[in-house]
Design goal:
heterotrimer; A mainly alpha (about 650); B mainly alpha (about 100); C mainly alpha (about 500); B: about 100 residues; mainly alpha; elongated; C: about 500 residues; two-stranded antiparallel ribbon; 22 helices
């Protein structure tokens, strides 16, 4: 049975892909069919994912793979493969489940859109590509699906293509992630050159297995860092995070899909997948590459949490929050807490999708208004949205006991506190916890509490097709807290391939309570600052320059625009200029020299050679003219001349004889 | 007295000279043609004479050549006359003095 | 089997004769018919071709001008067959795309014959004859049917390539005087030692290199290309980039590589530098273009730069691990094929836009996605194929090239990979300008893809997907050739 599953793992991405192609070949008019196909594909993928997940529970460290030949070049064979292990299995279930909720939500959210069918085709394509990333047993297959994920996100972010800002955001997303992908590509090539295979697991010959890792030697660090470039691009890590907030131009379900459950998770997943390369030759769990990961994650987590404090767009706040949480996950991976990072990724997938969909419901209810300063008091009008959003907010902030985020965050903080290199990340992450609680409280107060401002006047609750996915996701966010608690670290040990044991003692660590206190502090501060806040942000009133600095996203976009992009554009213009005037000029110079030689030759021809020839012909012409006078045209004269000639000849003959 | 070769040659030379004179002096194209015909006839007479006074027996080459010459002369006269008529139609004259298009 | 090759060369010429005497309205049909027959011949050639044999197949030899060692000698190996198939594919595509009269069709067919000849000739004199024969129709096609700047462009195209050819011819004459043969196989055998010695070897190498580098074109001998492609009518641009530019790459592999391995190795770093310059410089220049056709032309230089990178990486290394050499060479071959299809498709789409709008500046369009979703969709596929998106044909070739070249020349490759990024920027910028935003006034009446256009677009796009997903069927053509070449180099 499990062999059958591993050999047919490809069905999981293939089903949504088939749905996508089918929808694309339909006309736009057949809406119910389009949505039905997409959801059916997703349901089937979910069922198969659960089928794949089930056997992995049987034995710790379960791992099955199925490799096949893609093509042969020369005498070499390029093989790809699929793998199912705890990491892939939990990701599969999470992605298909969350995607399904998002799909259902989209039926309501996109109901009025003209290109409804195309939207579902893109969504299905995205989901297919992402599932492909998860089950890939080859860095190349992973890269292929990875790029397709990028394409899908490009299509989805730019879905409202008539909006220039959406098109610009889509382009930015694709290009920024591709910058990272260039690094990933080089890392992959290097890995391939060194180990001779791109398969992760291949019965002992894979790149992630002993023989493969040994062949890497000292360049493992470089390869790991190059691969991390790709992860940083996709997961929005500093300095490549700039695309992610802009990507909010896409429809809200897209934001939920891309920024919560899937695409951004791909980077974290990638690092987790090739973790053996990162940790190769680790001393006390520390390698250069992992240290880089930690610091990048710390910077990302902190600056994006700060920026989130000053944003007004409901989705942008969530986007920066996502960037910040991804930073946190990277930190976790970097300090060695792989399981904690992945657990946070899973929990985050649920509650961030919940939050994004909730924000979508809010935006829908407020008639496409996204500015939180124009909302307010929605608690009464949109009760379901409010309650589910509150669950999501508490899960994200890390409110203890019954919310998924609390335990995973605590795990990560615990892991950072054990990092032997430096304690700084630990403290900064503690600050991050406070900031997260703070900006989420701010958002909650602005949106759901207080006075009903302009956009909230005519707000209404969303239809059931949109609220049900919210409820389901909220229940999941709560239910997950059971499997994530340290008292029964089942998922943690499952991911690490160990046997779980109940350990109630872990519930009374002092570290746990520090985090809980900080969360309470963050929420308290939020309530204190933002209670009764009006259109002008309290922070803006207190410290205008700081607020502007944060609201303008630390001017990082402008900085890139003036430095890297300006240089690149200048290079392009220079290349064009050189081509037109320098290289072509050089050619023209050579051509001109040729012309010069030509005209010199011509002169010599005309004045020298030609003149001589002309003179000679002149003489001949003169002679001819002289003779031609004798030609009177009189036949009889000619005849006479002939006769005289004949006579003369006869006489000459006679004289001779 | 039987005629000798010399007699024939003298007659032939006289005929030739008459023809030449006609061709050179007459202005009318048809007379010029007649002159040329006379010169041809002189040449034919020569052939016959040389054949007749050659040592016997000889193949009748002289006669043959002369017959050919007469045939060709007939054709030539036909063409010549046709030309003359064509020229006359074009220039409305058959006076050769006025036909000087060939001058250099 | 050699009659197939002869048929390939003669049928287009015969077709050209028929076309030039046929009634005006039937010229294009006859030309397409001729293309169909040659395509069938090419398919038959493919069927009869034994991919397991390493050397030349279907060889035919006849004495021609024994005094100068010229022989009528043709034959194919995997590379030749690949290019023959590509030529058979690109020409009907181009003739479909461009509706013109008798002379146009006839010249196109003559060019096709010349290309078949170039890709199958195994003797330098014959090869050179065909090589030059392609030049004249090219010149005329640009000069007569080109855009506003056609005179200049055509002259530049002709002079550039002709000067290169003269240098090459001189070099080969010298080789003949010293070595006494024009036969490729014999020359290749001699090339394993030292074909020539001392300074003259370098001069001959430089002469041949110049001729081929202009044809490819390799930076900095490329300036004729943007002008020529820009001025040429759509169908001719498609043929120029799809098939004609492959003659240069083919020449590098068939002539320079076996004849001057030592020189190639010594000059390797410089050649790699030129290839990297081609890649980076051309993609940057493409970024700065606002004329779509010029943009695609520069990207064509960029893509052929990848081919050159793979090739030079192999030749620059003294001892090449077979795995890397095979990867790079396979990549180069595949890239030749892919670029032929993709670049021709891109020119075709630009032609469609130009035909509808009467202009082809980036800023002449806007919001097309709302008006012509099918055109935009299929055109995007061609663009993504060109920027190397996995799942489409471009990726496989580029991956193999970079896989080989990274192991052999890591530094150059690391820089060259930036070309992938810049290409992406160029295409996304174009897509943004053309497809997105509000619908431009001037584009309000555009027709979406017509049925006839769909018949061209869909098979070509399917081919792109086929190569991207299952490249084996193309790779199978030349795997043995690649293996053999890698062995010779290793």
């Amino acid at each position: 049975m499990s062999n059958w599953i591993v050999a047919h793992l490809w069905l999981i991405p293939a089903l949504p892909l088939a749905a996508s192609l089918l929808i694309l070949s339909l006309t736009n008019a057949r809406r119910p069919l389009a949505a039905g196909l997409a959801i059916a594909g997703q349901v089937l993928a979910l069922i198969l994912s659960l089928g794949a997940f089930w056997p992995t529970l049987s034995t710790p460290g379960y791992r099955l793979f199925h490799n096949f030949t893609w093509f042969t070049f020369g005498e070499q064979t390029l093989r790809l493969g699929f793998v199912i292990d705890p990491l892939a299995a939990v990701m599969l279930v999470m992605i298909t489940f969350v995607s399904l909720c998002i799909f259902v939500f989209s039926v309501g959210y996109m109901a009025a859109d003209k290109n409804f069918g195309r939207f579902f085709a893109y969504l299905s394509f995205f989901s297919a590509a992402m599932l492909g990333v998860v089950i890939a047993n080859s860095l190349l297959l992973l890269f292929i699906c990875w790029e397709l994920v990028g394409l899908a996100s490009y299509l989805l972010i730019g879905f409202w293509i008539h909006k220039p800002s959406a098109a610009a955001a889509a382009k930015k997303a694709f290009i920024t992630t591709r910058i990272g992908d260039i690094g990933f590509f080089l890392g992959m090539l290097w890995l391939y050159g060194r180990s001779g295979t791109l398969l992760f697991y291949d019965g002992g010959n894979g790149a992630l297995e002993n023989a493969g890792l040994l062949s890497l030697g000292a360049v493992a660090t470089a390869i790991a860092l190059l691969i991390f470039c790709g992860a940083a691009g996709k997961s929005g890590q500093f300095p490549l995070h700039v695309w992610l907030p802009d990507a909010m131009e896409g429809p809200t379900p897209v934001s939920a899909l891309i920024h919560a459950a899937t695409m951004v998770a791909a980077g974290v997943f990638l690092v987790a997948r090739v973790y053996p390369i990162f940790s190769l030759g680790a001393i006390g769990g520390v390698t250069t590459s992992l240290t880089v990961v930690v610091w990048i994650g710390v910077i990302t987590a902190l600056i994006s949490a700060l920026i989130a404090l000053a944003q007004a767009d409901i989705k942008r706040i969530l986007a920066y929050s996502t960037v910040s949480q991804l930073g946190l996950m990277m930190v976790s991976l970097g300090v060695g807490g792989v399981a904690a990072g992945i657990m946070h990724l899973l929990a985050h997938g649920f509650f961030k999708a919940l939050l994004f969909l909730g924000s979508g419901s809010v935006i829908h209810g407020c008639h496409e208004e996204q500015d939180i300063r124009r909302m307010g008091g929605l608690r009464g009008v949109m009760p379901v949205t409010f309650l589910t959003y509150a669950v999501g907010m508490m899960a994200l902030s890390g409110v203890p006991l019954f919310f998924a985020g609390a335990w995973t965050k605590e795990e990560i903080l615990h892991a950072t506190s054990l990092w032997s290199v430096s304690r700084v990340p630990h403290y900064l992450m503690l600050a991050g916890v406070v900031l997260t609680a703070l900006y989420m409280t701010r958002q909650m107060i602005y949106v759901f509490f207080g006075r009903r401002r302009a956009a909230a006047e005519h707000a209404h609750e969303s239809p059931a097709v949109m609220t049900w996915p919210l409820v389901v996701l909220a229940l999941c966010a709560i239910a997950l807290s059971v499997v994530l608690t340290p008292a029964w670290p089942w998922l943690h040990d499952f991911l690490l391939g160990e046997k779980a044991a109940v350990d109630l003692g872990s519930l009374i660590q002092p570290g746990l309570y520090v985090a809980f206190v900080l969360v309470a502090l963050g929420i308290g501060l939020g309530v204190f600052f933002y209670r009764g806040a009006g259109e002008v942000d309290p922070l803006e009133r207190a410290a205008p320059p700081l607020f502007r600095f944060l609201a303008n996203r630390m001017w990082l976009d402008e900085l890139y625009d003036w430095t890297i992009l300006a240089v690149a554009r200048f290079a392009a213009r220079l290349a064009d200029f050189l081509d037109r005037y320098f290289w072509d000029g050089l050619v023209r110079l050579i051509g001109g020299l040729g012309q010069l030689v030509g005209s010199l030759t011509k002169g010599f021809d005309e004045r020298g050679i030609n003149a001589g020839v002309n003179d000679a012909t002149g003489v001949v012409r003169g002679l001819g003219r002289l003779v031609s006078v004798r030609h009177s045209g009189q036949v009889q004269t000619y005849l006479g001349v002939i006769a005289v000639g004949l006579l003369a000849l006869l006489l000459f003959y006679a004289w001779l004889t | 007295m039987s005629p000798t070769l010399a007699t024939f040659l003298i007659v032939s030379a006289a005929l030739f000279c008459v023809g030449l004179l006609a061709a050179l002096s007459r202005r009318h194209a048809i007379f010029i043609l007649i002159g040329i015909e006379m010169m041809l006839a002189a040449a034919g007479l020569n052939f016959i004479a040389f054949w007749r006074f050659a040592p016997q027996p000889t193949p009748p080459t002289g006669v043959m050549v002369t017959i050919f010459a007469i045939a060709i002369a007939a054709a030539e006269a036909a063409v010549g006359l046709a030309l003359v008529i064509a020229v006359y139609r074009h220039y409305h004259t058959s006076n050769v003095d006025q036909m000087d298009q060939l001058k250099g | 089997m050699a009659h197939l090759i002869a048929g390939l060369i003669f049928i287009p010429i015969l077709g050209a004769l028929f076309v030039s005497v046929a009634p005006r309205n039937y010229a294009r049909h006859i030309a397409l018919g001729s293309c169909l027959i040659t395509a069938l011949f090419a398919l038959d050639l493919w069927r009869d071709f034994d991919p397991a044999i390493a050397g030349l197949q279907m060889v035919a030899r006849h004495a021609w001008i024994p005094a100068i060692g010229a022989e009528l000698q043709v034959g194919i190996d995997g590379l030749s067959l690949l290019l023959v198939l590509l030529t058979s594919l690109v020409f009907p595509f181009a003739l479909f795309a461009q509706v013109r009269g008798r002379a146009f069709c006839a010249l196109m067919l003559v060019m096709q014959a010349a290309l078949y000849g170039t890709f199958t000739a195994q003797n330098f004199v014959l090869w050179f004859l065909f090589y030059e024969m392609s030049l004249i129709p090219g010149f005329l096609l640009i000069k007569i049917w080109g855009g506003p700047k056609r005179d200049r462009a055509a002259t530049k195209f002709f002079l550039y390539t002709f000067l290169g050819s003269v240098a090459m011819l001189l070099a080969f004459l010298y080789i003949y005087f010293v070595r006494g043969t024009f036969d490729f196989a014999e020359l290749a055998a001699l090339g394993k030692g030292d074909l020539l010695s001392g300074k003259m070897a370098w001069l001959a190498f430089a002469g041949i290199f110049l001729g081929l580098a202009v044809k490819v074109p390799l930076f900095p001998f490329h300036t004729w290309l943007p002008d020529a492609y820009e001025a040429a009518p759509t169908g001719v641009s498609m043929v120029l980039t799809g098939a004609l530019s492959k003659m240069g790459v083919y020449g590098f592999i068939r002539l320079l590589l076996p004849l001057f391995p030592n020189e190639m190795r010594v000059a390797g770093p410089w050649l790699l530098g030129l290839a990297v310059c081609s890649i980076i410089f051309a993609s940057l220049a493409a970024w700065a273009q606002t004329d779509l056709k010029r943009m695609v032309a520069y990207l064509s230089i960029n893509h052929l730069g990848y081919c050159m990178l793979g090739l030079f990486a192999v030749t620059a290394t003294a001892v090449v691990p077979p795995a890397e050499a095979q990867a790079a060479l396979s990549g180069v071959f595949l890239q030749i094929f892919n670029h032929g299809i993709t670049a021709a498709a891109l020119f075709f789409f630009v032609g469609l836009l130009e035909q509808r709008r009467g202009a082809r500046g980036l800023n002449d369009f806007g919001g097309l996605m709302q008006r012509t979703p099918l055109l935009c969709g299929w055109m995007s596929v061609a663009m993504f194929s060109s920027l190397g998106l996995p799942g489409l044909n471009g990726f496989v070739g580029e991956f193999l090239i970079f896989k080989g070249s990274f192991a052999l020349a890591a530094g150059y490759t690391a820089v060259a990979v930036l070309g992938l990024l810049i290409t992406a920027i160029v295409f996304l910028r174009a897509m943004q300008a053309l497809f997105s935003g509000p619908l431009a006034q001037s584009c309000g009446q555009f027709a979406d893809l017509r049925l006839g256009e769909k018949w061209i677009v869909i098979p070509v796009t399917l081919l792109m997907f086929a190569v991207g997903i299952y490249p084996q069927f193309v790779l199978a053509i030349f795997n043995t050739t690649v293996t053999q070449m890698a062995r010779l180099l290793g």
